[in-house]
Specification:
The protein has 321 residues and is α/β, with parallel strands linked by helices. It has 2 domains: 205 residues, Rossmann fold; 97 residues, Rossmann fold (3-Layer(aba) Sandwich). It has 9 helices and 11 strands. Strand 5, helix 4 and strand 6 form a beta-alpha-beta unit.
């Protein structure tokens, strides 16, 4: 067992709206859980004229993970798997945990999140704010170590926990299949040529990518991963050296771009200073990876801006000029 420590087009819109609205009558979740999505598409023309950023940091708790968390909780409640008295459990690098804590606590459930102790202090404080119990895992084992601890906790006390398991939960990618993809298709008037997303659980790229390919088989799906197993791109996984998420198919993307942490950090600063958009480090990675595709004259590239830059203000690179 791993070591851990406890710390206190219009039709497209109709389709996505129908998918989420059908849950309202039966769910105990707060209104914020039904206001995820419909995030703006920002033109990043000072970085590259054919590049757009899907501003997922404008979701209710500040990240793309609101989509998956809300849908996983809705389906768990409606299926009878998550019942009164059960405690929500999952591992997270931070964002999904924050979303689960915000929605789950407000719905009356206790929430336990296994988090690598290397996660930014901002993420830790947000989890505390939303009422989650944090179990810290070994920072050297990254998100994989957190997964192992969460699995152990779930197996040791199945009567206590509902283990949501975002890495294997189909409700994760379905949130993007019915939501994110339809929004992008509508916002680009069907002109999107490339979709660029980081890979963590695989939910965003699989769900969005599957639907976009159905709408236009010519759309290229681009995955973004860290350049190696030891990196500072919180939320992203170096798939070759990691526990493989069940919902992610490594052969699904048309191409995978590997990004160095320092270069992603530089792009975060460029986005802030040139576009007035302060997004997180993984967003710097997706934008950087998008540049070679956006350089083509007739391209229409959409990159996921996964979370708020304010979640990383304590990082050393954001304290430097």
């Amino acid at each position: 067992m791993a070591n851990y420590a406890l710390h206190g087009p219009d039709s497209a819109m109709d389709q996505s709206d129908a998918f989420f609205n059908k849950h309202r009558a039966t769910s105990s979740l707060p209104p914020s859980a039904f206001n995820v999505g419909n995030t703006p598409l920002l033109k990043l023309d000072r970085i590259s004229k054919n590049l757009f950023g899907k501003a997922e940091f404008l979701n209710p708790t500040g990240s793309v993970k609101d989509r998956a968390a809300a849908n996983m909780l809705k389906q768990a409640i409606e299926s009878g798997q998550l019942v009164e008295g059960k405690e929500i459990l999952d591992s997270s690098s931070g964002n999904t945990g924050i979303s689960l804590a915000a929605f789950g606590t407000a719905a009356g459930y206790k929430v336990t999140i296994v988090l690598p102790s290397s996660a930014s202090i901002e993420r830790q404080r947000l989890l505390n704010l939303y009422g989650a119990r944090i179990v810290f895992s070994d920072p050297m084992e990254g998100s994989d170590g957190a997964i192992i601890v969460a699995r152990d906790l779930a197996s040791e006390a199945p009567e206590r926990y509902f283990y949501i398991d975002q890495y294997s939960n189909d409700a994760n990618w379905q949130a993007h299949y019915y939501g994110t993809s339809e929004e992008i298709w509508r916002q680009t008037s069907g002109m999107i040529t490339h979709f660029v997303s980081g890979v963590g659980t695989g939910g965003t790229i699989m769900g969005t990518g599957k639907r976009l390919r159905e709408l236009n088989p010519k759309v290229k799906i681009i995955a973004v991963e860290p350049s190696g197993p030891f990196h500072g791109l919180e939320g992203l996984k170096h798939i070759e050296s990691s526990i493989k998420p069940r919902i992610f198919e490594p052969n699904f993307p048309d191409e995978t771009v590997y990004v160095e942490t320092e270069k992603a950090q530089e792009m975060v600063k460029r986005l802030a200073r040139e576009q007035g958009v302060f997004a997180g480090t993984s967003s710097g990675a997706t934008v950087l990876a998008s540049l070679k595709y956006a350089a083509h004259e007739y391209s229409h590239v959409v990159a996921i801006l996964a979370d708020q830059g304010s979640r990383y203000l304590s990082e050393k690179y954001l304290q430097e000029q």
